[in-house]
Every structure is written in C-alpha cells, then in structure tokens.
Amino acid sequence: MSAFRTACVQMNAGDDVAANVAAVSGLIREAKGLGADFIATPENTTLMAQQRTDKLAKCRIEAHDPALPVLRTLAAELKIWLLIGSIAILVRKDKTVNRSYLIAPDGTVAARYDKIHLFDVDLPNGERYRESDTVEPGNGTVVAELPWGRLGMTVCYDVRFPKLYRALAHQGAIILTVPAAFTELTGASHWHVLARARAIENGAFVIAPAQCGVHPGGRRTFGHSLIVSPWGEVLTEGGDEPGVFIAEIDPAKALQARALIPSLMHDRDFS
User: Fold this and answer.
1) How many domains are contained in the chain?
2) pLDDT tens digits, one per residue of 159-213
C-alpha cells in the first residue's frame, strides 16, 4: 500500500450539463497535471438544476447519460482513478438516483453507489429541501478495491449517519469518499466537524470534494473541499471558488491510527 497523490475538484455547477462537463474536465486535467493519481469530483457534478421539472427533463437513464462516457474516456486517456461524485440518473419518469461512480484507469466503471440518505430538511433561514421528491434512495453499502486499499463510497448527507461509515470501516475501507453540495448555512456550522469526525472515529482518510458558490435559483453551497487524515488532520482545504486541491495520502497512516485507537475492535451491538 504505497502512498499516492489525490485531488479534490471543487466546482460551481449550473443547469447546463455540457458546460458542467467541460468545466469539470478542465479541472480534472489540471489535477492530473499536478500529479494526482486519484481525482474526486463533487456531488451533482453534471447538473445543479433549480426546479424539479428542469432536473427530470435533463436526466437520462445510465445507458444514455451524455456525461458518463465523456468522463470515462477522460479517465482512460489520463490513466487515473476517477470518482465522479454523483450524476442524477433517471430510473423512472419521475425519479432519479443520486449515483456516485468509481472509474478505473482503463475507463471501466469499477463501482457504483446510490446515495442512501436523502436531504429532506427545513432550515432556520427558510431554505427548504426535498431530495426525495425526485430521488429514490439506495439501499446498500459499496466498498471498492483501489491499488492503495479499500474505498468506501458515500454522498453528502450520508455524512450525518455514522453507522454507514462504521459499516464501511468494518468492511475494510481505509478511504471514505464524501462528495457533497452542502448548503452554505449547514456547511459553515457542520462540514468540518462531520468530515473530521468520520475520519477520526473510523481511522480512515476522508476525501470530500464539494460544490461552491451560487447556483441556479439562488442556492448557495459551502465549498471548502477537504481531505482529512485518519488522525483528523486537514491535509488540504478548498475555499469559496472552484479549483483543485491536492494532498498526499499514505495508507499506512490508517493502519497506524487504528492500532493506536483500536475502537473498531471494541464495538458493541445495542440494537
């Protein structure tokens, strides 16, 4: 398990799929130019639509999604592991899944994960979100093999549910991905704490690329993409603008953290 260089791509996606694909492709190329072996993009990489009807009109079934083949080809060209944070994939005429993809360096889809926990909340500032209006939840954990260790896949709101990450850790994951589009309000209060907590309690690296800025309809996302060590150290952090944020990951650090604090061996079942 040798060390490797990873990159979080931070975006300000809008409601034009082609423009988003062009923007993220440029940032992925930039990350590769900085030596990244593993590159991760945010939740909603290809579409941040304002209205339910707009979103459904622009979504396609996986076989017809316009972005996925472009990004698979790019991963193969650059010979990188690419985590596409999520794409809204149509599964019924009125529902999508919020699907994260792990793409191998040959361009094949190595793993798929459908977001389990859906963001249905009313915030104190009047913002209201009902992800379940258009999204069907996933129902299972996904752990994939990387050259540097096992990867546990999650998406955004999942980060508030520790049991999911515990399950991934018990399945051998030492790297946890949390692509996100956190709101500005909740991000400012909770983003860093949640990402660091998931890393510390599981002795795992957390790679959390994020959306940032103002999106169609006035929605604001927090940005501040993070890569966190198993000891809770922030190895790199984005700001409020799109960009690429790099960190070196040494998988041995996860094993060291778990040896120092062997909490995975001390779990008890209270259900």
Assistant:
1) 1
2) 999 999 999 999 999 999 999 999 999 999 999 999 999 999 999 999 999 999 9
Q: Which domain holds residue 133?
A: 4-265
Residue 69 belongs to domain with CATH number: 3.60.110.10
Residue range 248-266, pLDDT digits in tens:
999 999 999 999 999 999 9
Active-site amino acid positions: 43, 115, 156
Whole-prediction pTM: 0.96
Question: How does DSSP assign the chain, residue by residue?
Answer: ---EEEEEEEB---S-HHHHHHHHHHHHHHHHHTT-SEEE--TTSS---SSHHHHHHH-B-GGG-SHHHHHHHHHHHHT-EEEEEEEEEEEETTEEEEEEEEE-TTS-EEEEEE--S--EEE-TTS-EEEGGGTBPPP-S--EEEETTEEEEE--GGGGG-HHHHHHHHHTTEEEEE--B--BHHHIIIIIHHHHHHHHHHHT-EEEE-BBEEE-GGG-EEE---EEE-TTS-EEEE--SS-EEEEEEE-THHHHHHHHHS-GGGS-----
Residue 270 lies in a domain: no
